[in-house]
Amino acid sequence: MPKVSLSLVNELWQDVRYGARVLRLNIGFTAVAALSLALGIGANTAIFQLVNSVRIRTLPVKDPQELVKFQIGNRRSASGSFYSAYSALTNPMWEAIRDRQKVMRAAVWNPDSLNLASGGEARYARIMWVSGDFFNVVGVPAILGRVLTVDDDRRGCGSPGVVISYAFWQREFGGNSSAVGKKITLDGHPFEVLGVTPASFFGVEVGRNYDVAVPLCSDAVIRGESTRLDVRRAWWLAGIGRLNPGVTAAQATAQLDSISAQLFQDTLPPNISPEYVKTFLAYRLSASEGATGYSSLRRQYENPLWLLLAIAGMVLLIACANLANLMLARASARTKEIAVRLAMGASRGRLIRQMLAESLLLATIGAAAGALLARWLSGALVALLSTEGNSLFFDLQPDLLVLGFTAALAIVTCVLFGLAPALRSTRLEPGAVMKSTSRGLTAGRERFGLRRALVVTQVALSLVLMVGALLFTRSLRNLLTLDAGFQQDGVLVTSLDFSRLNLPAERRNQFKSDLLERVRAIPGVESAASTGMVPVSGSSWNQEARVQKEGKWTSQGNVYLNRVSPGYFKALGTPILAGRDFNAHDTLTSPKVAIVNEVFARKYLGTPNAVGMQFRLDVGPGQPDPIFEIVAVTKTFKYNDLREDDEPQGFFPNDQEDKPGRSDQLLIRSSLPLTALTSSVKRTMAEVNPDISINFQTFRAQIVNGLTRERLMAVLSGFFGLLAALLATIGLYGVISYMVARRRNEIGIRIALGASRGNVAGMVLREAGLLLGAGLVAGVGLSLALAATAQAMLFGLKPRDPVTLIGAVLLLAVVAATASYLPARRAAGLDPMVALREE
């Protein structure tokens, strides 16, 4: 190695050792600086880990870049039943795609939950319904036994067997190899365990790991006569494929498009309106990149996570500004030392390098501590996103991208807080410093100006974060206090599954009615009702409504539907505005009736009181669909989401359902303590039949659990906003304290010449007020400029909400003014003789 290179390496090593020695001698400063950096870098790394898991990281399978997702690319609307966030295809569509496409190995899947328990309180496993070739397509082998094959997924298969995940194998079978060949029960049906997949494979849905993979053909066994295999309006499958060698996603889309016209003609649902026929036949299949898998969380959280990363970045900037101020203060104290070294021949470049080495060591310590902190913070973030009964799963192991991100943060922070102090502290004239007083030249206006600028920047950025925190907190409050049209508190959602009883269809309605009456008879139960779908639960059913106008049945648009029992609206606390509730006379043999909400009545029928009027659903040419007579109009309430606009809704009586299912959901309103109520309901169900499976959740908890995104933004933006305000306040306090210390002699002379204590305090507070005012003005402008980025995540607020802006300004001003008062009071209490003696 050349001598020059060896000399440079030796000098660099000496600089690092010098920096380490300086930090060791100033252990308090080192601890504060490292902690500040650890918080900033740790927060940024934790959020980036989630961004990486949700958006960037590919599935842990063989050659993930070859995977594509296939779906209807231009599906703007569809009617029917939807079973998950990935309800892209019906099974008839899938079978046609499987038989006709030629560009990939294709498979479909769908997430679900099935009960492992044989009765009593339910214990759910996370299910993946998969086509037979699924594991072969995604490239996942079995580590024990075998995976499913095409032969396992044929019509009439019954229950051929299942594949379980590594985590489920460890949890349920203790990792014993004898698990293969044993049976597990899913919704009362036994399935043999065929194999176990690797620990790294969680499925193809980011954020949700699977427990058991079940072949599609077993849907006929699990759901009986409600099977979705032949239902052309049951949207429940999502497609994934592995491209053939040499085929691109664009070529796959072209081939899928070429078979679309005939495919959708062959899978056209019966009994749909002419308008929807046109929409359906215009559908076209397409393929898109599938390496990162499916994720409803990606759509829900991608933008919030990027925004939170930007917020955390601002906090890190504020921390760097604080550290730069600390470094400038330390440099001021070392002015004569630096001047002496320059006078003795030390080069300016060497001095800058030594100071940067000190900064780099600090940044390295902070980054290492931040990386450790990020592991805990990432877990806390996942826990914040998870809800009761829906825990999320993310692969948070650091990869090269995350490590590179943390390293880049360390380098950037080193430059941000270390370079300016190093450059300024070495720009000295040694002779002038030697002739100056003991305070040196660092109190000069130019040198102090940088510290002022850093504080103004901190205040401005802190105000931006405070405004964001108040916006997101108020938005969450608006959602939690929203009048959703129903009473959220005091209602227990009870899910019942009596499929193990094998009741014939004609007995189920009466069985449900009897169960409901027994629940209503429980002491302390105020009202109870059964429903097909609980409001704001994620389940939905919509069809096109037609009303009679000018003698013709005319399509009006989609209506959200539900089947409910008498007493449903009473249990929800939703008033019936006109007409009557369903009753025992609404049976299979009586005229078909319905209740609609006020939006339906006004929008589709043009009147607030539609009692006695009629409508139909999706009437196809020549189809004898029943006409529904409206017997009541109810107040509108939220159906899918608290954020949604009020939509037309219709309700049908349970007892007029000709194909009742083998499960039910009860809404039980009671003032009893939750434990007492659940115990009574379980005891009542056990008395009827111990094979009835039961599951509980409070209505309020279900709604709150649907606000995880809003809760995440409110909690984290609030935390970062308070942290930023604290850092900015500390920075302002430090600058004002530094100013007071540098002007002790001047202040002492002023007091000695007759200046009042109030005048001295006012002088100091004016300096603080100028810095605070400049920062607030800059922060207001920045907040207004950035406000639009939060538009989509707010509810009931404008991004430029004046109340929020004024509140943030006042809050930050009060906190900062309080911090400035302390050095002002210290200056006012200065003894002039002591100050003059020091000079």
Helix/strand/pairing class, anyone?
Answer: alpha+beta
Q: Give Rg in angstroms.
A: 34 Å
Count of DSSP H/I helices: 24
Fraction in helix: 40-55%
Provide the β-strand percentage band. 15-25%
Largest sheet: 10 strands, mixed
N-end to C-end Cα span = 55 Å
Low-confidence sequence ranges: 437-446
Number of strands: 24
What is the overall shape? globular
Average per-residue pLDDT, rounded, comes to 84
Any descriptors?
alpha+beta; 839 residues; ten-stranded mixed sheet
Would you mind describing this structure in some detail?
The chain is an alpha+beta fold. Helices cover 50% and strands 17% of the residues. Strands 1, 3, 5, 6, 7, 8, 9, 10, 12 and 13 form a ten-stranded mixed beta sheet that branches. Strands 16-17-22-19-21-20 form a six-stranded mixed beta barrel. The chain is globular and about 105 Å long.
Brief summary:
By secondary structure, the chain is α+β, with helices and mostly antiparallel strands.
Topology summary:
Blueprint: H1 3-25, H2 27-56, E1 67-72, E2 80-82, H3 91-100, E3 104-115, E4 120-121, E5 124-130, H4 134-138, E6 144-145, E7 162-164, H5 166-173, E8 183-186, E9 189-196, E10 212-215, H6 219-223, E11 234-235, E12 238-243, H7 249-266, H8 274-281, E13 285-289, H9 296-333, H10 335-343, H11 348-385, H12 400-425, H13 430-435, H14 445-480, E14 491-497, H15 505-520, E15 525-531, E16 540-549, E17 552-564, H16 568-572, E18 576-579, E19 593-597, H17 598-605, E20 614-617, E21 628-634, E22 649-653, E23 663-670, H18 674-688, E24 693-698, H19 699-705, H20 708-742, H21 744-752, H22 757-786, H23 802-828, H24 832-838
Helix pairs in contact: 1-11, 2-9, 2-11, 2-12, 3-7, 9-12, 9-14, 9-20, 11-12, 14-20, 14-22, 14-23, 20-22, 20-23, 21-24, 22-23
